[in-house]
Amino acid sequence: MTAPGTNTDAVLSRFSLNQETVKQWSLPELAEGCRKAGVTRVGLWRAPVQEYGVERAARLVREAGLTVTSLCRGGFLTATDPGARAAALDDNRAAIDEAAALGTSTLVLVSGGLPAGDRDLRGARERVAEALGELAPYARERGVRLAVEPLHPMFASDRCVVSTLGQALDIAERFPVEEVGVVVDTYHLWWDDTVAEGIRRAGAAGPDGGRIAAFQVADWVTPLPAGVLLGRGQLGDGSVDMRALRELVDAAGHTGPIEVEIFNEDLWARDGAEVLAEVVERYAAHVL
Amino acid sequence: MTAPGTNTDAVLSRFSLNQETVKQWSLPELAEGCRKAGVTRVGLWRAPVQEYGVERAARLVREAGLTVTSLCRGGFLTATDPGARAAALDDNRAAIDEAAALGTSTLVLVSGGLPAGDRDLRGARERVAEALGELAPYARERGVRLAVEPLHPMFASDRCVVSTLGQALDIAERFPVEEVGVVVDTYHLWWDDTVAEGIRRAGAAGPDGGRIAAFQVADWVTPLPAGVLLGRGQLGDGSVDMRALRELVDAAGHTGPIEVEIFNEDLWARDGAEVLAEVVERYAAHVL
């Protein structure tokens, strides 16, 4: 028997590196860093991909032999203003095109928060579902599944009105499983005592994890920084039992990628290769 | 018909001022400020009461004709270390004594977070329930009900492993309704689409709101400050539909106090009387 981390192929067999974890790296640096570390899967973000050029980025990852496990992110579908709503739908169609160009079947959607002065969470969630109805056929034609990501309730007002896996499934289940899935992210869901039930429910929707379109891991650490967005913890530094959640996701039939997505300014200030090596080591110790 | 706020008696008929909302006031200033504003109910905190002297504080509020609607807070019952656990139980018995001395029947309990290095939320919640079993008889003999307060999930690791009203009720329902209730605080629960169901369930447990031992209001505003503790918003400044939640609590049979509890450094930097006047005005406009 080998200690965790000593058999790199086995350790990395489902590992995917979300590029925001090593935001200090350009796309070519990401491709090169992954090659050196034996990492074959990445999750990408729209802004750096657009900056580099979508077709150019697609060629880069293809030539580097990388699989793109998800594109983050579309969404922000809660506007009440018709012009803003139309613009959001256009932007999401562009995101779908970008996902297709990059060869990933998973577009992560962050729903959006409450419009200014609005206090109607239920109405906002309903607008998300309506927008999915408009986008799902377009996505399906391009081989892309929309993945609704519940974000931690601390983001409910300003970023994502979908706060629990149960809510995400309530929305996703209005659509065929091939069209709309959900994202299970340990950082957002770890506190919820109904999450095991939600993961089972997601898995029961079909083969290969059913509605689980993506599984992302990060740890929960405190104190939270101002604005709370960049407070995610390195794997193993915090309170999340990531292994237990990974086992639930496995048991739900998800055999696909496990994507490490950590937004943390301390990690960004360090050498990217060093961060990636540490992430892989922590992943072996705390997720596998 | 009179505009909101013009009939002070009607506006204030259920109003209670939690002292942390005007933390800049000493206890005598609080008593005097409430007298001037026609406020007859206050929620108190242990630290300033202890500093002033419990008996002396009890006499002060009694002589000022103030009713103490709750004492914040006991709890922090998640320790695994036997010594720390015994100390926490002792401290909670002291808190029960203090509540009794102040003449309030409601001791608010914040459960406590995960011990260092611990990732077992379920185990921690179980320890909270066990501790309540030890404390409830002691409290009952002194006319005090333990009020389990679910805190927003952003506090789950470091402050309170009980994050939803449903979880709080799961724990409270192991005990007679006279012994253990729950706190409904709009700041902590507003995002949860199961909160209406939880409030109904709490109300169905008995007369006078059943398990609803306290109803507290504050608004949710962003961006959250570092540490997130002092980020509560003045009523009306944020995303919470406080009136809708108040109506649910009313419908559940709670006819008792509505306690305004806002931790906000900007409010603390202002004149206490001015803050209280603004709070009452906002309360009339956004809660009643």
From TrEMBL, chains A, B:
Alphabetically sorted, this entry's keywords are: Isomerase
What GO molecular function terms would the record report? Answer: isomerase activity
| The keyword Nuclease appears for this protein | no
Residue ranges occupied by any Xylose isomerase-like TIM barrel domain in the UniProt entry: 34-278
InterPro entries, from UniProt?
Answer: IolE/XylAMocC-like, Xyl_isomerase-like_sf, Xyl_isomerase-like_TIM-brl
Q: Please indicate which superkingdom the organism of origin belongs to.
A: Bacteria
| Family matches, as PANTHER family | HYDROXYPYRUVATE ISOMERASE, XYLOSE ISOMERASE
Q: What is the protein name for this chain?
A: Sugar phosphate isomerase/epimerase family protein
Source organism per UniProt: Streptomyces fragilis
